[in-house]
Batch of 2 targets.
Target 1
Amino acid sequence: MDMRALYDRLKALYPLGELTEQRANLAFVTLPAEYLRPALLHLRDLEGYRHLVLLTAVDWLEDGLFQLTYLLCNRSRNCDIGLRVMLPREGATMASSHDIWPTAAVYQRELREMFGIDFPDSPGVDEEFILEGWNDIPPYRRDFDTLKYANDSFAQRAGRETRDPETHMKQQLYPDRD
Amino acid sequence: MKPELMKRMVKGPDGVEFEVEPMRDYYCDAPPTVQHGAYIKIVEDFFNWARSQSLWILGFGTGCGAIEMRPLMTPRFDAYRYGIQWRPTPRQANLLVISGYLSVKTLKRAIRAYEQMQNPKYVVGLGSCTINGGMYWDSYNTIKCLDQYLPVDLYITGCMPRPEALLAGFEDLKKLIRAGQAEGANQYAERFDWYKANQKQVIHDWDMPDYNW
Amino acid sequence: MQFEWIKIPYALLTLFIVVNYGMLLGAFIQKIGARVGRRRGVPIWQNYADLVKNFGLRTSITHGVMFYLGPVFRLTGGIGLLLFVPTIYGSEMFSNLSFAGDLILALYFVFFGTLGMALGAGESGHPHAAIGISRGLSQVTAAELPLALAVFSVALQYQTLSITDIVSAQQGGVLHWTLFTNPLAVAAAMLSFLGSMMRPPFDVVLAPQEIPIGPPTEYHSSYLALMQTNRAIFPVAKIVVYMNLFFGGAASWPVFFLKVFLIYMVSVFVGVAFPRFRVEQSIRWFLVWAVPLGILSILLA
Amino acid sequence: MAYTPDRSQYPAMKADGSLDIDLASGKYLKLWQGPNHPGITGNMSVELTVCGDEVVAGKTHVGYLHRGFEKLMERRTFIQCFPIVCRICVPEPDFNEYCYAAAVEELAGIEVPEKANWIRALILEMGRINSYLMYLGGQAGALGQGVIGQWTTYARDLMLDRFEELTGARIYHMFIMPGGVRDHLPEGFQGRMQETLKEVECTLKDVWEVMFCNAVFKRRTVGMCVIDPAWLDEYGVTGPNARAAGVAKDVRRDAPYLVYPELDFEPVTGHDSDIYTRADVRRRDLLMSVDLIRQILARMPKDGPIMAPMPSMLHWRIPRGETYVRGECSRGEYGYYLVTDGSGYPRRVNVRGPSYTHAMSLLERMIVNVNISDVASLMVSLHTYPPEIER
């Protein structure tokens, strides 16, 4: 297996977590934040993973963690590998990788704005990207309640009947479940 | 406020120092006033007829509804037949089509474009998302009710409305104009404080004066 | 010289006819463009509705005195050009205020409106207007050069500076037209004509996708109405000059309408299917293609 | 004689790579291209700093269309997400439906019936044709050639008719559901589709003659705004933008999905990487899509199920997992990153639109030293669409 062999090669260099093989050509692996940069460079320069597909975050509120996912693609071998970095939610900070891929700066700017994850030294990371004059907690965090915010800030048209999926499902369909 | 909007001293290319205050220099604080039509009714009716026959839409696609504006102007639907044309600058346009949901950031630009248009001016809200939020009823970044912020003459429902619906909507707008009922600009002037309060409640980054011609 | 006051109402009558003709012609040209795009296009009276609407707007914003004067100058350029050129050859009524040296004056009026507009739009303070003006002035200068050369060539050919005399020299059959007696000058002038009609590929001044929409960006309500009136008069007036100089003039109104339409169609034919040149490309185009033709025509005359 | 611009007036570069632009000196002018500007692709804006006629720095501003889809999807069940995903991208909404459906199917372990895959590929290719037709009109329009837009929009309307007859809607089709597609092809669809394809080819022939053979168009586009092949990896350039630079990046060939392994096609590439080549690559890609639709129609199985057996939508829970699914849309690689946590709601959805890199970092890099007149043309030629950036 391609991904397994790659995992073994990386494992010899960095303390990696378990390999999650989602498909034959897509795998995810967790590694500590300080080893991310050498791993990215290694994958880019020696393994041919030259295309940064995306960089995004997942909020695991229950565990108090942010998961950063760096998804890299090797086009000639049609393989993708996702590097997961777990950060503590409080004061989440990560080293910038804009010098490896210039386009990462844009992703980092978005993460800074939408999740509040800081990337010191990334160009323009503190500038407003999508929102303007935002005065609440970053909106993509799980503890941000968008319905409450919308009801508080925007005038709603009287007479509109909306069923929030969550509450509606709870009331109508499985009231006993959590 | 952004530093470039602050009052400050500037040295020109010729070495002369002068003071600039962008908020005052570029904009105008005077609130809009209610403008009456011509005193003779028949003249005003004639003007209203001309206004209804010459709707110049501001070319500002604020949302996804803008994609149906292009078929509207091309062979299949050809709105030019009805005197509907595009205008790229707000000064010359007299119809602002809010084509879909307005995010807070766009709302600010839409307000500015609306205020730059000349009286009489009309607003058409397009799509369910301008009426009650539509699909985005729980979104934190889109307004739910357009007539809280701008005086709307007409709504066209749908997600998204078909070009036929748009044509029918514009015909209805023409009827309103000919009947002298499309006085949104005067409503805006009359209830200026109310509109401004609503706008400021939503737009937190209010770095423009209350009225910018 | 005795001035006949009756000329003034006659000239105003000419103006009236030309304004209406220009409005209808404009809409008609738009319809032709729409047909190429497989549309029906605007109704033929659309320009009147637009004009009345713009006059009927209740508010208008000013940016200063020159902002007022810009459209006025522009309109003066159009009307002046029309009034000092004989519209219908051989008709006492529609010879307007033409006189012996009117050719030079006509050349001046062609430029006058653009300059006035530059002053007015510059006052509006919009960066797009300023960029549009700098583009417009440089392009008009380049486009006028071949026209001036062609006009001098024609003046040399007929040994006169009076447009009426030039027209009368061309009477007596199609082959007497300057088009056939001095084809190089006509070619140079027609290339310049393309450049001055604000249609693609030479419409970089207005270019809505780049600098929406150039000098008139800030103009609205009555100012815009004035400019619309000028937009009806000016092309017709300019075509009248071309018609008189190169295409044998017109001896009656039907001939006039037909010839103006046909000459206008030259620019429409080219314009409807072309993208636009950048300003330096269009200037280079004039200098490379049109100016040598003009110089050659002077040398041969 | 070659023209060399005088660079002495240009801003100096500071140590950190940013430009030392002193606006008060009067040498530079700030121009906002957008959001209320006909020469911009959608509702976004570019802040240009110009010196004379040339742009010395450009900065893309987005967020005018932000609705927070990724947040809204976290509070909708898996099936409730399906009608809103298509609204992320207007010109080609079906890719959202496909990528979302494929990601959900993968995590939930649903096998899609074969006929549904053929119909999905058909829909995606039809959407690609629409998007390209729109692009061609926009590219010509940005250079002042309005008539091309009239013709291509007419052809697009015909294609929208086929969409309407298949899905019931012109723009937002909501046809590709998790598990399959909503409906079979209607009666007589194939014949009418063939007619439409002929009409599209006819329009393209006109477009070729009037637009691509036009001397002025060539003058404005050949050799302008070249993407250096070295930037492709740095900036994550995909799709026709990369193919015009000579790199055959095409997800349909690199990582085949749906029925593409069975279809006969070769990714279209160009060499010069300028605006003209990018337009031409898209034109040829469009013709290839026409060909692909013909292949699909001819080889589609006549009958068979179009929906996989699905669990009850209301109690549908998907076990914990994460995946990334990609497809080749008309602008480049479109992908969905989906994370589930065992509940009935997605934990996180991230949409990777190709414009994300094209319109932001790549555009800011390319716009330097471009004439103001060419900014609109450059922006259109990257074929960006802002809602993909901000969702």
Target 2
Amino acid sequence: MIGALLAAPTALVTDNWWDIRDLSNLSGAILDLIEDAGGPGWLTYVVGALLGTLGIVSFIGGVAIINIWIERRVVGRMQSRLGPNRVGPFGLLQPVADAIKLMQKEVLQPRVADGLVFTVAPIAFTVPGIALLAVIPWGRNMVLADLDVGIVFLFAMSSLAALAVFIGGYGSNNKYALFGSMRVIAMLVTYEIPIVLSLLGVVMFAGSMNLNQIVLFQADNWLFLIMLQPLAFLIYFLSSSAELNRTPADLAEAESEIAGGYHVEYSGMKFGLYYAAELINAVAVSTIIATVFLGGWWLYKIDEIVPGWMIVIGKIYAVYFVFIWTRGTLPRFRIDQLLAFAWKWMTPMAIINILLVAGEVVLWEETGWSAGLLLPLYIAINGAMTAVLIVAWVRVMAPKFQRYPDRPRMYDGIDVPSLPAPASIGPTAPGAAPARRATV
Amino acid sequence: MIDDAGIVVAFWILSATTVICALMVAAARNLIHAVLFLALTFVGVAGIYIVLSADFVAVVQVLIYAGAVGVLMTFAIMLTPGADRLNSSTVFQAPALVLSALVLAVIVFVALDTEWAISDRQAFSATARSLGEAFLKPYIVPFEVASVLLAAAMIGAIVLSREEPEDERAA
Amino acid sequence: MAIKSDLVEVNIGPQHPSTHGVFRMVAIIDGERIVDVKMVVGYLHRSMEKLAEERTYTQNIPFTDRMDYLAAMTGNLGYVLSVEKLAGVEVPERAQYLRTIFAELQRIASHEMATGAFINDCGAWQTPVMWCFRDREKVLDLFEMVCGARITTNYMRIGGVAFDIPDEFLPALDRLINDDLPRRFEELEQLIVGNEIILMRARDVGIVTPELAINASLSGPMIRSAGIAWDIRKADPYCVYDRVNFDIPVGYNGDSYDRMVIRIEEMKQSLRIIRQCMSDLPAGPHKVDVPLALRPPAGEAYSRVESPKGELGFYVVSDGSSAPYRWHVRPPSLINLTVLREMTVGQTIADAIVTLGSIDINVGEVDR
Amino acid sequence: MSVLPDVVLMTLELEQVLIVGGILFAIGLYVALSKRNAIGILMGVELMLNAVNVTLLAFARFIESPRPIDGHVFATFVITIAAAEAAVALALAVAVYRHRETVNIDEIDVLRW
């Protein structure tokens, strides 16, 4: 698996080390240099792994810094304010200033906290998000670990992050943190299912769990999988925003309810690590969406001119912008509503989607009709299916909302109904409003 | 026999980590810490699987053991708040130790003494596809039985952990 | 609840992001469900009612700024109305109109704050509250223009208002209420009215039945949400409210959502009132001369106004000296808060926060 | 190969993996036999299952076989069953706790509840 690391360039126009369209040219040149100098095999191996890791870690470090700025500026625009604009040009150094401030702060630890767990949790929360990026193809040959089961690896890593959040909340020994932890677990158990099921449809179309193969499938068929799988995309997007703790599903931290949730006791750089990890996870999920649904490094011939990794990063930020957008717009669900939404809507929809995809793939393979004929048909069918399901859901949900009008009645004068006075004021049955004179 | 130096070094590092973490599961005084070390052990074992070129099983190991079973255990510990949180031992500590040592000795003896029919196979290239074919062709019956078992376990767990309604308990 | 857990006591506040000040709820919870709620008030108690007995009637006006510091104008107004009633002061016509205009502007400012904070309690990440603050700032700009202060205005005086409006005030007001605010309200409504998530979070949450509303003496949006059209401005008109046309928005279900949309609708009605007052604004003195150390005849007076939170009443007893013998406030926030237990028991913590946000308390007024 | 000393550990043999698996199994056995807490015992059982999986995959990798992937199939089945077992066992622990206020196995000795 790691052996496939930085495989020899096959389809590139040039493989000169300076060709930045594919950074594996550069690392390959360095490795060749070591081999030519008579370095042992294991050295090449270690250096190759280190180079790839260095690339990913430096990317994630830069992203964690720049994304704080991007998120705050973009949300600032949406909220009709400026956002950070004092430190450095356009406030670009604000994240650096924040980081310095966080490092200077004392790391407080409650006396009753579980010291080991309390310390390990933020680190354990950060690692999976970074590890996840190892299997992402950044270019035609640029993939650190060309894992054959890439998609399952993504699921595994996201489930690890939940364990970290959970023990962080537990180790804080704080009631609010425990609420956050419990919510994380409930959400993890619930949302893992639609996530897996939604990506299953993609895997069935691509015929591989290897992320590079999925990208190649999109490149070969000249389409983005989001067109073939709009429902899966919606389900994955919503579920992953639940996994990421972003509004409308940021229940685990829910500042207005449980005051920060699992990280309520954290301060200083431990909190900074949580904060960075949250951004890293958001980028990781954006990367998955960009790779699986938006074609990764491939973009309609443009990838022959522009380096693939730049295209990936561009797509990552396009997705990330949508995450910021939803965060800046929507209020938060209640926990039972969020779980009900997953169980009662997203999971059945994902299963319907899988059945549909299975039928389509079988039809494709059995008849041997050309992709040029079938794929547009599938795009139409799946799009229509998505629209129908969403409309059906809205129809099902609407009566609950439309029991009363959205806007209040208007009275010209005072109108106080005479009511029989109850013996005592006590809890009354909700919704048991008596009939009143309708004087609208 | 694997003679790729990187993989061998990785194996020994992973093995040392895994064994140390497993020992900590036995030695940790707090049950929650024991669960955390257990999760680390699971991850280490997954690393060993990768060394043995079983990448699908490794990823599934992380997904199910470290992700699900670890969380489940932590959850169970928290759902039993009044119970002892100490990872203490029973009086059978010494016999258990002796027995484990015996079992280990037997395993080592068997491992070293047997003439294994070693093949000179290279690492598996892609296990997921052949694994899927194995599941759906020769092992289809066990596969279906396993899914029935999972469903049964799910229902069983729900029934067991469900609060009995008051009237049922009274009856 | 599948798995019954032990009851846990959770302190929500006094240091909590959404208790709107230093209010403390001690919630006994089972899982996430609230079994019992105890309200603890008094963290912001400043002994205003006692202090007021040592000061002259005019010196007491700044206290009313600092009670409901989000609605200082209506606080001023309620107090000076009661003193005027006690001392029998006739207020000039222009002052009456100015008082109405500023009371309604204050209602807009306060309701903007309440709506934004309420959506924040629903979990929106700052966007509505920022939009609402932006609009509130525009109103506060007008306050600054006329009296130099933005929050603690101290503008009303016994016998009128402190200053007449400057020349640039009326054009600015006209721009604000005819152009700026209607557009902003439109925008805000698009964002939150009928938003499915807000409906899910706020519908059927924190229900006040009409019986409860009347028996607990609720007022303001709380009682109107329960379907009872009750408004002091209509029931016991003061200033020029009997001369302007406006409607009372009334809810259906008594839940948090109703209270939110009632506030938004009231802001629009306030614009309507201000427009009428602007066109009718007479010339003349803005104040009659009242001795600074006013000595009203011995007696008592109670007068009430419809503050943004509800019925704000002032009860003043005079013994003929220059300081009130007794000075009592009927704070709408405190009275509305008393039903919190009835509203929240049986809900989840998240709902309790939404309910508290929808009551729109101001702890400065609750504790005084 | 020139830098590192050419020790015997530089190649990975089946026996070495089996011994690591054996150590894990022994630790799991010790944990399962000696712990008082039912959840602790379950941890030991899971350790043993993991050790078995290590050996299964080692055999799949090293031993001559017409269908080497069978080891992986077995390991996957073991993981599946272990997940089911963990769910049921932890549900049992919770159920026992509800009746007895303890999950220590040496206190649960009346064969009924």
